[in-house]
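seq:
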Amino acid sequence: MNVKEIKGRIPEKVFTLFESSITEFRPAQVKAINARLLEGKNVLICTPTASGKTLIGELAAVKTILENKKKAVYIVPLKALASEKYKEFKKKYEHVFTVALSIGDFDTTEARLSEYDLIITTSEKLDSLIRHHSPWVTRIGCIIVDEVHLLNDPGRGPTLEIVLTILRSILPKAQIVALSATIGNPKELAEWLNAALIVDEWRPVKLEKGIYYDGEIEFD
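struct:
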């Protein structure tokens, strides 16, 4: 799918930004668009690393922010990853909408976040913000969950599950975009999220398996 095919389906200023850097969408991105991502449908994306999952979340976020006038949150498992995404999105979208990073003190409502459109945070921090009744939370229209397979992690999983459960309860119309390179039970998770399941094996670099022994690699 050529990027020109979504002209008119996303805000013009963002289309111009994408058109200057993208020619063709990758397979998983095409599947997500065809699954009505741009119409607000929940999607669960299960594709290899570097296959273009992040852009799927971005497409949903820009629609929510610029057309629906709602906020988007991007949930990641680690503070370091949150900082990385913040720098990436701030540089890319600084002339389109505002981006904030929230990974600090858990004992605050972070009132300043009411002024930002896209908020990058961790599940633990977002859990704290919800429990402190941050008023801007009700203005969230898009929830992007990176590394969603961590729902099965004994450490971080319970917090992420609670956060998603609460958000789905208080924001029933919010779009959910869940991203992962590997999920053990994708069909069950998609059903729980009421999401279209997008599975694709395309990767930018071919993955080969081999055995290393005595200084040499023998590939299958």
